[in-house]
Write a structure and sequence with these properties.
Blueprint: H1 3-19, H2 30-38, H3 50-53, E1 59-63, E2 69-73, H4 76-86, E3 93-97, H5 103-112, E4 117-122, H6 125-138, E5 143-146, E6 159-164, H7 173-178, E7 179-191, E8 194-203, E9 206-214, E10 228-232, E11 239-244, H8 251-254, E12 263-272, H9 279-283, E13 289-294, H10 296-300, E14 312-318, E15 321-329, E16 339-347, H11 351-367, E17 375-381, E18 392-397, E19 401-407
Parallel strand pairs: 3-4, 3-6, 4-5, 6-7
Antiparallel strand pairs: 1-2, 7-8, 8-9, 9-17, 10-11, 11-13, 12-16, 13-14, 14-15, 15-16, 17-19, 18-19
Helix pairs in contact: 1-2, 2-5
């Protein structure tokens, strides 16, 4: 293919990529739409075909010595959604934490225009070098810094917008100091193992959410790395308990949990496809909340009940007992639009009790609004006065911040 033909093909695929976002509910603003049609994504993922570069999926670009992905180009829908929430205007000063391929920084440079500025910080030196090279080749005016983004940008400049492209366990003090009053921070926030992309606006000493969306991101590395435990239950790989924040768990007591017969508690709460908006935050109020990774082979062999999700489910552990969510078709469920009843299954000496407690919280979520629930998330600097928070679900203390999750009386304004 000649360079001219390749350029024309890339342009067609780029337009198709942007057009393909609309059926998924992403009605892009004119600025974001124009940026995504103008910036050639394939230049930032040169190792894959044009079709994959402009496909709907993320593209892994770097792996560690064990083959674990450490950097990728996020899915176009994720990129577009974050840019919409960030609301970048011409002339803005923007800080990006996590350069990745450099594609997002190139989009930001297009959005801020010649009167604005973009600084991107990348923890991995090889990733930073590749991003810098791709941006230079495109002629994008972006400053690429190799360093730990949790420490903020060198020189302590103030930014109108900060966007984080990796799962962050905390809102570090440096980001507070470098975000302008009324500035906006968009960050995938990790709260007790749950990740939500939150668009925060600064209101003095408080960051208040304008939107809260569920999404998945590679975890941040360096000083902001998430402290995560993975504990196998029993002798095989059938079930793994995953917890954040160094919370205690009795691995020895759990060893025999699967030797007990399963106890199941059904709730009568049914939802399309089993999708339960923000239900996991209601479960997170229980002591011992965790994620349980369930192997497909164990389910197919009948050793374990099928979890709610394809990877496993949210659940709880207590002593030598564990429980997690499961589903079954609701009466009269349509094959084309299955309605699934949510329940809980428990293993261990107190399996029935723990499954019943999970089921009770599912009922609480349903009574509080179920699929219609809306959450507000606030972040307060650690050590500041703790305010009243009506509808409070969770209060989680981090190193530099205190994060509040509460039920909104009505949805906040969306942008």
């Amino acid at each position: 293919m000649t360079l001219k033909a390749e350029t024309a093909a890339a342009g067609r695929l780029r337009d198709a990529m942007v057009d393909g976002l609309r059926p998924w509910g992403l009605a892009l603003s004119g600025r974001v739409d124009a940026a995504m049609r103008a910036v050639p994504r394939h230049l930032f993922v040169p190792e894959v075909s044009l079709e994959r570069a402009y496909g709907p999926d993320p593209v892994v670009t770097h792996r560690d010595g064990d083959g674990v992905p450490v950097s990728s180009a996020s899915a176009p829908g994720t990129v577009a959604g974050m840019l919409e929430k960030l609301d970048v205007r011409p002339g803005h000063r923007v800080l990006e934490i996590g350069a990745g391929t450099g594609y997002n920084a190139a989009l930001l440079a297009h959005l801020v225009g010649p009167t604005g500025s973009v600084t991107t910080i990348e923890y991995d030196e090889a990733v930073a070098s590749a991003a810098r090279s791709a941006l230079h080749g495109l002629g994008a005016a972006v400053t690429v810094v190799h360093g730990d983004g949790m420490a903020g940008a060198p020189g302590r400049p103030v930014f109108d917008r900060i966007v984080v492209t990796a799962g962050a366990w905390d809102v570090p003090r440096a980001w507070w100091e470098q975000l302008a009053e009324d500035g906006r921070l968009v960050v995938p926030m990790r709260i007790l193992g749950l990740t939500r992309t939150v668009a925060f606006e600064r209101d003095g000493a408080v960051l208040r959410s304008r939107s809260v969306l569920e999404d998945g991101f590679m975890p941040m590395r360096g000083i902001g790395a998430v402290r995560e435990q993975n504990i196998a239950v029993g002798a095989g790989p059938d079930l793994v308990v995953r917890l954040d924040d160094d919370r205690p768990v009795d691995a020895a007591a759990l060893h025999g949990a699967l030797n007990h017969p399963v106890a199941v508690s059904w709730t009568g709460v049914a939802v399309p496809w089993g999708w339960a908006e923000h239900l996991d935050f209601w479960l997170a109020t229980l002591a011992g909340f965790c994620r349980l990774l369930v192997s497909r082979g164990a389910v197919e062999a009948g050793r374990l009940m099928a979890p709610k999700g394809p990877w496993g489910s949210m659940g709880v552990v207590e002593g030598g007992t564990l429980a997690y969510l499961t589903t079954r078709p609701a009466p009269g469920s349509d094959v084309k639009m299955p309605n699934l009843e949510i329940g809980a299954c428990g293993y261990g000496p107190q399996g029935a009790d723990l499954a019943a407690r999970l089921a009770e919280r599912i009922g609480d979520w349903d009574r509080d609004g179920g699929q219609g629930v809306r959450l507000w998330i606030e972040a307060h600097l650690a050590g500041t006065e703790r305010p009243e928070a009506p509808g409070l679900l969770l209060a989680v203390d981090k190193r530099d911040s205190r994060v509040l999750v509460r039920l909104a009386e009505r949805a906040p304004a969306q942008v």
